[in-house]
Specification:
CATH class of chain B: Mainly Beta
Distance between the termini of chain A: 35 Å
Number of strands of chain A: 11
Number of strands of chain B: 11
Largest interface: A-B, 23 and 25 residues
Shape of chain B: globular
Radius of gyration of chain A: 13 Å
Helix content of chain B: under 10%
Strand content of chain B: over 45%
CATH architecture of chain B: Sandwich
Oligomer: heterodimer
Distance between the termini of chain B: 38 Å
Strand content of chain A: over 45%
Structural class of chain A: mainly beta
Order of helices and strands of chain A: EEEEEEEEEEE
Helix content of chain A: under 10%
CATH superfamily of chain B: Immunoglobulins
Largest sheet of chain B: 6 strands, mixed
Shape of chain A: globular
Number of domains of chain B: 1
Structural class of chain B: mainly beta
Largest sheet of chain A: 7 strands, mixed
Number of helices of chain B: 0
CATH topology of chain B: Immunoglobulin-like
Order of helices and strands of chain B: EEEEEEEEEEE
Radius of gyration of chain B: 13 Å
């Protein structure tokens, strides 16, 4: 297992279209996080899974965003009716449970909405 | 509402000297702090962490200091190397949410 992978790496879409991103965490990690990062900012928390359960969602996450983690393995993040303001880097991270909170990040998916 | 702040967007240091990156936070409930390093086109990579019950943690060339009364943490890199040139993010944990600063771009000049 070489780390967290994300697909696609880049996505260009037209405003109003739906997009879906995939994250494959490190296999033994039961926690999975999604973040959004815009230029000049740090990663901004979107949502968090413990195994297959979505335990927390940012209040900033609009109802156009939905995330799933079936069977506690890979996760998908879907954005419906994309807007230009959704253009950002979407990062996924995974970690083990417990007192060590080291997160391992994937390379991200860069979304451009035209 | 930026709860974790890195007020220096960039820093340049000569190779071999000390790099000091600073981070301030507003929420006294944060109980765990981390530093990440990020190279272009890659995700952030964990560097070092510190629990709120400690005031110092050291790992090789990297030391993190935590001043809870001032709500301030810093990352010291000694000696700095050209390969340390990257963007550094501090992050703080409250509950299950991590809050990241805006990052400081470090350039180590050979």
């Amino acid at each position: 297992d070489t780390g967290v992978s994300q697909n696609p790496r880049h996505k260009i879409t037209k405003r109003g279209q739906n997009v879906t991103f995939r994250c494959d965490p490190i296999s033994e990690h039961n926690r999975l996080y999604w973040y959004r990062q815009t230029l000049g900012q740090g990663p901004e928390f979107l949502t968090y899974f413990q195994n297959e359960a979505q335990l927390e969602k940012s209040r900033l996450l609009s109802d156009r965003f939905s995330a799933e983690r079936p069977k506690g393995s890979f996760s998908t993040l879907e954005i419906q009716r994309t807007e230009q303001g959704d253009s950002a880097m979407y990062l996924c991270a995974s970690s083990l449970s417990g007192p060590l909170y080291e997160q391992y990040f994937g390379p991200g998916t860069r979304l451009t909405v035209t | 509402d930026q709860q974790v702040k890195q007020n220096s967007p960039s820093l340049s240091v000569q190779e071999g000297r000390i790099s000091i990156l600073n981070c301030d936070y507003t929420n006294s409930m944060f109980d765990y702090f981390l530093w990440y390093k990020k190279y272009p086109a890659e995700g952030p990579t964990f560097l070092i962490s510190i629990s709120s019950i400690k005031d110092k943690n050291e790992d090789g060339r990297f030391t993190v200091f935590l001043n809870k009364s001032a709500k301030h943490l810093s990352l010291h890199i000694v000696p700095s190397q050209p390969g340390d040139s990257a963007v550094y993010f501090c992050a703080a944990l409250f509950g299950n949410q991590f809050y990241f600063g805006t990052g400081t771009s470090l350039t180590v000049i050979p």
